Structures are given as structure tokens and as C-alpha cells.
Amino acid sequence: MENSNFVNPFISQLNIEKLNIGELAIFCGAGISRNSGIPTVIPFLQHMYSTLGLHENEQQMLLSTKQPFEKIIETMLSVNEQLVMDMLFNSFDNSALGLKPTGIHKWLAELAKKKLVSTIFTTNFDTLIEDALNAAGVSFISHCTDQEGSICCDENCLSYQTVNWNSKILRVIKIHGCIRCRDEMAITIKNIASQRKLASRTKCISDFFTTKGNHLKILIMGYSASDIFDIVPVLEKVRRTDKSIFYLNHGVLSVFDKLNNVKSVRNIDENFNPFKNWGDDHFWMTFNTNLLVADGTVVDGSNKFKWKKWVDRYVRELPKGEKEFLSAKLFRSGSPTRGSLTEKNALEISLKYYRQSRKIYKLLNNVIGLANCYNNMANILKDMGKLKGSLELHKKASKLFKNQGEYMKLAWSYGNQANIHRRLGNHIQAMRFHKKALKFFKDIGHMESVSKSYGNIALVHKDNKDYRLSVSYHQKEARICNKIGDLEGLAKSFYNQANVLIFLRKYDRALHLFDKAIKIFDDTKNFPELSCCLIYKGILYQKMGKVESALELYKEGEKIGLEYNDPYNLTITYYMQSSLLKDLGNEEEAESLLIKALKLIDDHGFTHLLNELNLYFIQVSSEFRGQGEAWDHLL
Description:
The chain is α/β, with parallel strands linked by helices. The protein has helices spanning 9-14, 41-52, 56-64, 69-79, 81-91, 94-97, 103-113, 128-135, 182-193, 199-209, 231-237, 308-317, 322-333, 341-364, 367-383, 387-403, 407-423, 427-444, 447-463, 467-484, 487-501, 507-523, 527-543, 547-563, 567-583, 587-604, 607-625, and strands at residues 24-28, 117-122, 140-145, 151-153, 170-174, 217-221, 244-250, 263-264, 283-287. Helix 17 (407-423) runs antiparallel to helix 18 (427-444).
């Protein structure tokens, strides 16, 4: 193509024309296929929300949460898996839709034909890259993920052949699977949606960006870096690499505008910048990537939105009541931050759609659908602090689940009832329901739920001051989590054990478990739990008299809370910093922080949190000072 010799500074920095054979690799996402008619996330979700019948302000509320697409798909799969998979297959099948490669695909094929590219690594299901390569007469080996997340050739995904990074033949690695291998693609989607991290796939991503292959430069195109459960965590862990990154961030700037628009990736203030810790020799530029090639913006209008008919069909074929049920679940799972005003609004909307679904299920005598509505509505009422109303709905749900032989759901309902009884202070009832749930989970053999039951029983023992029993149940929980690879569950078990060990005066062991939990939460990018863990480790330091260490942890928790808009943990850290500074005699700053904490409590309805923090402080103080000292000066 005539204009593949670019005159903008970014491409000059990449210096394509002076590359040796195989020195360049391409990493690309859905953006490069958008102009062919393949949907990208925002238009896809906008059309689906509209087709579901959500009001415009409700659509905007869901879009504003910026949930990862994988999380939304997980919610949809939980309602009707087969219809969701059919919609995805048909929406991304470029051959069936009659879609052709864009100028970007052809440009990549041109680079490959010159043998400048050794690997094309893509998240895309479609085969537009392969179509462009075939049209250009380029030989290549296509790899995609199999059932276990291994990277294999796409010969029906049966060869289990790992990537040969030293091969001189071009590699096309489809890390999310390929539309030609639908069974494997379905498994990959479900793994990603459920946040199941598979070692072989993770290793392949890391290898590509760090040490494997003879490519020295990686050009990133059409990738939004919003998949915070999948590729982004791998990229954020990279500290050393032999490669140089050149990130083309699609935007409205002309390729000829703002010639100084090339920046180091570490200086980019973006919501999603997984490269911010990579160093100064990696580059970022925003401009309209359609301008890379002359025909990059040429789109067949008749093909551009063909995918919409499959979204329409998906919604149309949902059984009666499921459209409203799905809408309710989207708002329930879409609550952006724990306890925020936006979350309260989302919960109210979710409750509205569950009531609509419940009405339809009653008319149809759909007992399971009705039980699911009662169960989910009960969970919303619990989050809203309406515990007695929640308990009544859980009783209705559990009765229906039992009559229908839905024992897994019955066990979950028992567990939910137990947690409500615990919050109401009914520890005997809480223990009884947790043990009923545990028995069903054991009989069914669902070990993840068994581990959670052990953890819940441990918390009730802690409430009853049976600290040794509490630790023993947390240890049972941790052993199962470790065995089944549930890292999040393991970290929560360590965190809860640490809080119990304080009351057994095993402070070094408690600090050790806090550190283990912090590492896992950091690795898995669970920022709310990470923030909470840092703060509670700080509380222990504060009571041990290590005030500087405590303040440092409170500040770290505050930084995470601000960065990820987490008012819940911000309330805790402001409150704790206030108490520490008050003890140090810094009255003015202590009062300022207390005002911040009380404002968050008032704005977000965190009254229960104030009581819980005061009780926790009294309990911890009694272990160090032998007395229950309330924070009267803060209340």
C-alpha cells in the first residue's frame, strides 16, 4: 500500500522499514475488526440494553460502571447459557456475516509478507486476520486455546501442540479461541467470564510480552486494556522485558496532528494502563488508526450492523420472565462500588425488575423461576439493610427449592439465612443453618461451597469467642481452597484467621497471614479486599504501638480506595487514621479525617460500619490493654 510508510513520529519511532526479519510482533484486539462489521463492546452492550427494554438512564447507569465485558457475559450465562453462546457465535462469525478484512488487516498482512512480523497475538474470535494473510499468500500457523487453556494448533484443537517460539513460520495466536472451533471457544469464554485463571494460557501471554520469540518490538492496536480479569493482570505483573511496546490508542486525533503526542507509557493517565510500571522505553500514542491506511475507513454499510439481528434474536427467544430476570441481575452485578449511592439506585432498579419477573413466573406457575426471584430479592434486601424482610423471602425461596429437589440452591439459601441470623445476633440459629448448608454441600460434593461453609462457621465461633475452634475451621477452609486452587477464598481465609489470632495473642502469626492475604489480593487485583486487608493489618500495628507502620498502611489503603472509588474502605481508613492521630495529639488533622469518615457514613448509609468498627476497636484494645475502651472521643 502506498501510505504504509508513515510520516508521523510514532511510526518513525517504531522504524518499521529498518526492522530485521521477524523483529516485530503485533498484539491486537477487537478494534481492528470494528470497521469490517464485527461488534466492539460499547455498541454491543448499548444495543443489547436497548433491546432488553431498559430506560435510557438505566442503560447509561450500566455503561458508566465500566464493568469488564467478561463479567457481563458471566451474568448472562447464568441466566441462559445456550442462547448467549448462540448469540456470540453468530455475532462474531465473519464468514457467515459476509464480512471482509479491513485496510488494517491488509496492512498487517503486508508487513507479514515482508517477513517483518514473527507473531500476531489477538483476542479476536473472528478470522479476518487469517483471511487477509491467505489473500496475501502468507504462510502461517494458527494457534488457539483448547479445553484446558493450553495453546494448540487449530486442527480441531486436538493436537495440544504448544507454541514453537523459534519457528520461522508466522504464528497467529488466538488467546480467546477461534470462531472455527466453537466448542473450545465456548469453554474459553466461560473460563474468562468466571475469572478462572489457567496457567498455560497465562504463561503464553507472559512469554509473548517478555522473553519468548525473536521479536524485539510489539505494536499494540485495537486493544482497550479493559479486561481486568484476564490479560491486564498478567501485564501489570511484568517488571522486566526484552521487548519494546508501541501502543496505538485509537482516538479522534489525526495522525498528522500534535506531532509531540508520543509519550512514555508510564506517563499516560488512563483508566486502563497496564503498562504504567514498564519504564520509559515503551511508547503510547493516541490517534485515529483508520488513517493508517487509505481504505481503513471503507465499510460496507449493509454489513456493518448485521450482528444486531443476533442480539435481537437472543432477547426475543428468552423464555417469558427471563428478560426481566436478566435485567435485574445486570443491575445487581453491575453495582459499581460497595455501598455507594449509585449502588443504592442500582439495587432499587434491580428489585423493580425482579418484581416484574416474579409476577410473570407466578402467572406461568414457574416454581423454580419464582424461587430464584425470591432468593435474589432477599439478597438485595440484605444489602439494603432490611434483614427481616430478607429473611422472610429466603424462607419462601428455600421452601420452593426443597419441594423441587433443588438441593444446591437450597443449601445456598440456608447459608444466606445463616448470615442474616448472624448479623441479627442470633448465633445459635446462624450455626444451625450453616451446618445444614454444609451437609448438603458435602453430599453434593461442591468443595468450593464446603470451604465457604467452614469459613462462615469459623466466623460464628469467633462471635462466640470460641477462638481456637474458629481458627480450626478457617484452617479447614484454607486447605480446601488450596487444594481446588481458589486463591481468592484462600486469601480471605488467611485474612479472617489473622483477625482471630489477634485474640489468641499470636500477633506474629497474624501479621504473617495478613501478608499472605495481601500478596494474593495484590496478585489477583482484588483492590477492595486488598485495601481492607492493609487497613486491618494497620489496626494491629496501631495497637502494638507501631504507629508509623500503621499510618503507612492506612495511607496505602486510602490510596487504593481513592483510585478505585471505594467509599466503604475509605470510611474505615479515615476513621482509623483519625483515631491514631488523636492519640498522637494531632487534634486538627484527626478531626478533619473524622469529618470525612462521618460524611461518607452519612452519604452512603454506613451506620452499621460505625458500630462494627467501634466494637472491633474495643475487642482489640482489650487484648493489649486489658480493658474495653470505646472511642468516645470520636463518636
